[in-house]
Amino acid sequence: ALNQLPDVSLPRYVRVNTLKLDVDSALLELKEKYSVEKDDLLPDLLILPPGTDLHDHPLVNNGSIFMQGKASSMVAPALNPEPGWEVIDACAAPGNKTVHLAALMKRKGRIIACELNKQRIKRLKETIKLSGASMLQSLKLNPSSDIHVLNEDFLNIDPKAPSYSKVKAILLDPSCSGSGTAASRLDHLLPSKAAGQDTDMERLNKLAAFQRKALQHALSFPAVEKIVYSTCSINQIENEDVIKSVLPIAESHGFELVNPFAEWHCRGLPVFKGSENLVRTDPAADGEGFFIALFAKKKNVQKKKK
Ligand code: SAM
């Protein structure tokens, strides 16, 4: 069935890990074998012809480039953390967005990579190691650099604890149905699917309840100024509905929805005022169905707090 994927004709994207290699050097090296172009939205993203197989490429094996789709590579830049900031990646494994944050922050600042699942912590640590970012053993050590891995339930992290008092940005990429990914869109081809309709709805409701809770929790960190929420789902219930239900709480904390990619062609479903700030990627045109929402503290609120 995989051969019938609708997106075999779509380009292959790779994200250059600027912790290890600059974009132009990656471009030059890949150009020896492939026709490569720079992406017009993300400066660290390169576009290769459909079907390019890079699995065993030396640049992939040594962590200089990551095989990461465009939509997934848009999330950390949407948050756009500044070097020196303290940032939480709330649901971090396998860590693609964690190490993208580290690259954008140019090794300056602190990233707390929180992951509930012990098995997936291993993957997260491997990704961090491969990326060349350094890992901290303790939150209290050397607050001026890189990534601290935390095997915790994000919902159990106390926003009032002193270790989190300076957290300025949170990336929340919670567990979701994955309905925007190619593998999941082929689910209907599997014979077992029809029987599971009801439980699917139950599962979606459960996921959405967690997503809402996690987003509310993110909003409660005292110094947080930006929160990005993303899913690889195309379901309104996990996307616009989550944002809509949390928006009044966000606004009461002084946040507003802002548009991270003004020129982007695909927007959130128009189900509430402000949904034009939401970003969707289109499974057919963009290869994956992602959803991105960015909350930012209103400028005058930020000033008043200083
Ligand atoms: N951001 C990751 C990346 O780009 O590589 C992908 C994250 S994946 C969509 C969601 C992750 O959240 C899973 O690894 C899951 O185990 C973790 N997770 C689920 N519930 C959690 C919770 N309550 N606290 C922390 N992590 C959680």
UniProtKB/TrEMBL annotation:
S-adenosyl-L-methionine binds at residues 91-97, 115, 153, 173. Transmembrane segments: none annotated. GO terms for cellular component: nucleolus. It catalyses: a cytidine in 25S rRNA + S-adenosyl-L-methionine = a 5-methylcytidine in 25S rRNA + S-adenosyl-L-homocysteine + H(+). GO terms for biological process: rRNA base methylation. The active site is at 232 (nucleophile). Coiled coil: none annotated. Keywords: Methyltransferase, RNA-binding, S-adenosyl-L-methionine, Transferase. GO terms for molecular function: RNA binding; RNA methyltransferase activity. Signal peptide: none annotated. Residues 2-298 form the SAM-dependent MTase RsmB/NOP-type domain. Belongs to the class I-like SAM-binding methyltransferase superfamily. RsmB/NOP family. This is SAM-dependent MTase RsmB/NOP-type domain-containing protein. The lineage of its organism: Eukaryota, Viridiplantae, Streptophyta, Embryophyta, Tracheophyta.
